[in-house]
């Protein structure tokens, strides 16, 4: 075993662990809370309500067009906070590493995490590293948790606040992340122009909060795609959501790949899109704020909330017919995030 | 694949994921923040400073005398918060599951998490589940993150606040957790009386905070044992710590097992012990409070902080000689937590 690979001792809490923390993590994530190396990070008080979330990432391969597991992990957690209208104020990162992983891969991933956290302006204040023997994990899993502050003026958006008459806005194209990972993994030839949309959405949400006082719900449609996100909301609010197929933007490469593979792009994970559900009276201001943001230039109103049938999602197809849009039932794209 | 095992679809964000969440998690962890099923949990404001921490758990086997991976994960994170003098107010739990894991094992583990979180009085408000194909992970990894509130009257303890003249207190015996897991894994015959000390220490720390206003440092000596914890503190505070071998309690079974295997019990992980470092003037009150607590009945003063040599830990042996107590350098006990 060469010196530039992860050893069991790097997870044992002794000298090698301390070396790893200094060389890989402290050198990148440096901030006062992390650098004190307590069992917990200690942070200043939060005014108002706060949001708390966690996500594990097991994406395979680790690197894909548009991102890697590190960027994905930070974006995923930032976006879950953003969906609660919460400004990210601190993240933690916990790694499970497979013995034999190369240091340079870990360092690339940690560089990505640092770059995107820096872009958002959120420090990574706490962490943990475990190492398991070769064959007991596949290269690297990362769990990022986050704490965010909800502005005092904002009533936290939540799935059960959605009401009949609300409009459903989406910040851009669907299916890019899932198909980018799939294409990378399967070596699909036609897919050279499919790039993950993986991006941190806090600044987009910040722009929305500046113009709207009453966002009913936000959700980033990841695993299970737009279909799963809308069905969850419809179910929790006991409403019907009707969306227009023709209003949902989709990149040509993603459309072609989905057609060829027989996958519904509305079932495919996104990692840089936000669903925003608002009263109709707020919708124009919100749409305009979203469109002005670089990550929301293709935003559109994709549907409307009705009162019945409760808990269902309908799709008005390009042909004008209405069909039930169901939650995917199997796992069409494993290890996508 | 039978119906009572975890399938890839349970991690895909669709119907099976929703079923898993309802059946396994919501039925046990039920609380208002979790039950709203937002992308983040939304919680009330925290008065004063707060602590934030994360730990991944990869212990093998999943079940051992005195606990299991679920109890361990909740205790580990609660204890990291407690070491910052923070009352746990919310936990998150993220699972990476291997396809084919039996539901009943997952449910037993989640029951344990629920039981110990309930004992501490902390809700599990956020979670995530990923499933990877058979062979891509070993059964189950759990990452628990936590947020805790530090009482306004308390200056947060931290490794760099330790000063010459301080006394070092330990809440009980060393080595129980690591040797219990080791013995279970290796099927050691002599080890029937070794039980993990895995326990949540917030109530013990709460009792200490009631009698002391100036705790310099607390630490729960997990991976790398007492030796690693003391060396980290000595290094961060640039002090010398001298401890007395004869003052450190150790269970007979652990002592025998360590002797036979040639392992230093001071290098072995604990999961229910707290190191407390205080000015001498506070030490009697703190020791007495610790001894009155069921998890601290064997507490003792195990050493003292000196000014030099900076960053070192000495052990006064039973023979009266002084030797350097170093941080372990390899991984003597892999996958212990």
What is the topology?
The structure is a homodimer of 337-residue chains.
Chain A: H1 15-29, H2 32-35, E1 41-43, E2 50-57, E3 63-64, E4 67-68, H3 69-83, E5 87-98, H4 103-120, E6 124-132, E7 140-149, E8 167-170, H5 176-186, H6 202-211, E9 217-219, H7 225-237, E10 240-244, H8 252-261, E11 275-278, H9 280-292, E12 300-306, E13 312-316, E14 322-324
Parallel strand pairs in A: 5-6, 10-13
Antiparallel strand pairs in A: 2-7, 3-4, 5-7, 8-11, 8-12, 9-11, 10-12, 13-14
Helix pairs in contact in A: 1-4, 3-4, 6-9
Question: Overview of this structure, please?
Answer:
Two copies of one chain form a homodimer. By secondary structure, chain A is of the alpha+beta class. The first copy, chain A, folds into two domains: 8-150, 60s Ribosomal Protein L30, Chain: A (2-Layer Sandwich); 159-324, PurM-like C-terminal domain (Phosphoribosyl-aminoimidazole Synthetase, Chain A, domain 2), CATH 3.90.650. The first copy, chain A, is built from nine helices and 14 strands. Chain A has helices at residues 15-29, 32-35, 69-83, 103-120, 176-186, 202-211, 225-237, 252-261, 280-292; strands at 41-43, 50-57, 63-64, 67-68, 87-98, 124-132, 140-149, 167-170, 217-219, 240-244, 275-278, 300-306, 312-316, 322-324. Chain A is globular. The two termini of chain A are 30 Å apart. Chains A and B meet through α1, β1, β2, α3 and β5 of A and α1, β1, β2, α3 and β5 of B. β2 (50-57) of chain A pairs antiparallel with β1 of chain B.
């Amino acid at each position: 075993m060469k010196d530039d690979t992860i050893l069991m001792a790097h997870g044992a809490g002794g000298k090698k662990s301390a070396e790893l923390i200094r060389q890989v993590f402290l050198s990148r994530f440096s901030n006062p809370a992390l650098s004190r190396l307590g069992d917990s990070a200690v942070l200043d008080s939060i005014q108002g309500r706060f949001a708390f979330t966690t996500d594990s990432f097991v994406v395979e391969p680790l690197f894909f067009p548009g991102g890697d597991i590190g960027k994905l992990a930070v974006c995923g957690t930032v976006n879950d906070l953003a969906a609660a209208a919460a400004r990210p104020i601190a993240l933690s990162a916990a790694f499970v590493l497979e013995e034999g992983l190369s240091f340079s891969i870990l360092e690339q991933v940690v560089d990505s995490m640092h770059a995107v956290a820096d872009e958002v302006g959120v420090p990574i204040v706490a962490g943990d590293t475990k190492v398991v023997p070769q064959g007991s994990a596949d290269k690297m899993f990362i769990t990022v948790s986050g704490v965010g502050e909800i502005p005092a003026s904002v009533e936290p958006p939540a799935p059960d606040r959605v009401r009949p008459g609300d409009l459903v806005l989406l910040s851009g194209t669907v299916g890019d992340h899932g198909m980018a990972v799939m294409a990378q993994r399967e070596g699909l030839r036609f897919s050279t122009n499919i790039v993950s949309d993986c991006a941190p959405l806090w600044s987009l949400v910040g722009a929305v909060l500046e113009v709207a006082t009453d966002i009913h719900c936000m959700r980033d449609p990841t695993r299970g795609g737009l279909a799963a996100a809308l069905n969850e909301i419809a179910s929790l609010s006991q409403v019907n959501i009707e969306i227009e197929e023709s209003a949902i933007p989709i990149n040509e490469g993603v459309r072609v790949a989905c057609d060829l593979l027989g996958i519904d792009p509305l079932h495919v994970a996104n990692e840089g899109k936000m669903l925003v559900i608002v009263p109709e009276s707020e919708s124009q201001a919100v749409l305009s704020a979203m469109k002005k943001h670089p990550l929301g230039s293709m935003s559109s109103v994709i549907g409307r909330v009705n009162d019945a049938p409760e808990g269902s999602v309908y799709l008005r197809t390009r042909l004008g017919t209405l069909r039930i849009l169901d939650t995917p039932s199997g796992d069409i794209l494993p290890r996508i995030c």
